[in-house]
Amino acid sequence: MAYTTKKVPTTPFDGQKPGTSGLRKAVKVFQQPNYTENFVQSILNVLGDKLAGSTLVVGGDGRFFGKDAVKIIINMCAANRVGKLFVGQNGILSTPAASCLIRKHQTAGGIILTASHNPGGPDADFGIKFNTSNGGPAPDAVTNQIYSLTTKISEYLITDSPVAVDLSKIGSNTFTVDGGQQFTVEVIDSVSDYLLLMKDIFDFESIKKLLSGSSGKPFKLLLNAMHGVTGPYVKRIFVEELGAGDDCCVNTTPLEDFGGHHPDPNLTYAADLVKAMAQGNHQLGAAFDGDGDRNMILGVKAFFVTPSDSLAVLAANLECIPYFKKTGVRGYARSMPTAAAVDRVAKETGKEFFEVPTGWKYFGNLMDAGRLSLCGEESFGTGSDHIREKDGVWAVLAWLSVLAHTGLGVEQLLKQHWARFGRNFFTRYDYEGCESDPCNKMMAELEAKAIEPSFVGTPLTAASSGKVYTVAKGDNFEYTDPIDNSVAKGQGIRVLFSDGSRVIYRLSGTGSAGATVRLYIDSYESDSSKHSLDAEEMLGPLVEIALQLSRLEHFTGRSKPTVIT
Ligand code: G6P
Ligand code: ZN
């Protein structure tokens, strides 16, 4: 088949500024004539001289509008002289699988169609994210450039008629564009390359043994794919390869609207997993988000592992995973609001440690420079330098490796970890769907308070208990990347207390409208007699102080958070 290119005149849309992780808006916004095309053209233009003849990866989490977007991208890539696209079958690729493919085939990057954990469907959200040639989310410098291009765009290139590719059929399709240039679309199995990578990283035989119960202990696994993209991955990996029964996974059919739910693995939105695990029949439970990069880990009777603890426990047990034996352990990192549990593991093992702003993109440079092996975020993200995205399925395999190697259960492992390193109690309060203006005012007022020199040394008292915390430092977090010296400012207001406890305020960067306030509370306890106390209770006084200090109810009108994790 042959196609010719046409230039379509267009005008800029306001607000095509990528957030924490790509451009996320309501589906209806993306469906406006030229809206998606403008953004895709701006992504392609950012590749500059590298665009002609380049190879890119395209795929997404299967949400509503995903297939339409894949077709638009194919038609535009053909017209923009891209040489080859690797496209997941039916447009499906988990975010970690896309990162794996970019690296494996050394492509110029990839375009991932997802709004991650945001709901999907005609009345919900869509998103487009550009990953660079290292397989990671584009860094700020690149997303700023894309945004700047969207503000000036006057035309885009697209084929005169849709490129005829059957996305359901695996195979290579080559076309001629403008009478000469060859354009190939290779439709690939969504899981195969990712599976090979996992087999390379983990000892599948030892995990198989654990799951089969042949190591002496019966072991049942429960995975909830939340109707997101991980369904086909967990079936292939855990059922077909590792021999767990069919009943080890639920909600494995990817749905365009995730069954009407928030595909977000936390205690609120993955309540059905919590309920099933509470019955006590399973040794490990996990849920994943829409695009498969987030995970939540639960033990027997729904024992909750905070993402911050999950990172720290894995960090302390990396010798259970063959990959790290091969590569060695370079360093650890977490995002700033993540509880400081991994910091203690880094200290004890003498490894380098980094604290970066929220967003996986900040880990990429450190990994590329060979200084970071394992990292995570409180937002249910765990991952390593095997790719440049966080990775939900990888996290479950990592946990199973540790359980297989140590012979311990999830709760036992956590308790031993706390006894050795102390426990960071952590909670996050989310206030979703607030009005933006008052939230911005709240953050401005907080910043003014935090940076006022006299704030240091101020005792803050929780009225209900009389518990006092003394301010040791306040700031708006700023990060200088040690590799390229780029600076990220305004990454969240921090109030650090003299006992090491921390209160952090941030506005979410992943919403599609309005504002979401996030309040993070992190408190360290070395006394092991207190490690089994209830986290909400332990953190109550600090929460109270955080709410008073920010006048959150006054600004948002909310007396309760939407979600507590
Ligand atoms: C995405 C990114 C994460 C980040 C999270 C923060 O999931 O991939 O790296 O932690 O967004 O979301 P927020 O809504 O808090 O900006
Ligand atoms: Zn995600």
UniProtKB/TrEMBL annotation:
Cellular component aspect of the GO annotation: cytosol
GO molecular function annotation: magnesium ion binding; phosphoglucomutase activity
UniProt-annotated location(s): Cytoplasm
Keyword field contains Magnesium: yes
Cofactor: Mg(2+)
Domain (Alpha-D-phosphohexomutase alpha/beta/alpha) ranges: 16-156, 213-298, 309-421
Main location group: cytoplasm
Alphabetic keyword roster: Cytoplasm, Isomerase, Magnesium, Metal-binding, Phosphoprotein
Top enzyme class: isomerase
Signal peptide positions on this chain: none
Pfam families given in the database record: PGM1_C_vert_fung, PGM_PMM_I, PGM_PMM_II, PGM_PMM_III
GO biological process: carbohydrate metabolic process
InterPro entries membership: A-D-PHexomutase_a/b/a-I (IPR005844), A-D-PHexomutase_a/b/a-I/II/III (IPR016055), A-D-PHexomutase_a/b/a-II (IPR005845), A-D-PHexomutase_a/b/a-III (IPR005846), A-D-PHexomutase_C_sf (IPR036900), A-D-PHexomutase_CS (IPR016066), Alpha-D-phosphohexomutase_SF (IPR005841), PGM (IPR045244)
EC number assigned by the record: 5.4.2.2
Catalytic activity: alpha-D-glucose 1-phosphate = alpha-D-glucose 6-phosphate
Family indicated by similarity: Belongs to the phosphohexose mutase family.
NCBIfam families: PRK07564.1-1 (NF005737)
Protein name per its UniProtKB record: phosphoglucomutase (alpha-D-glucose-1,6-bisphosphate-dependent)
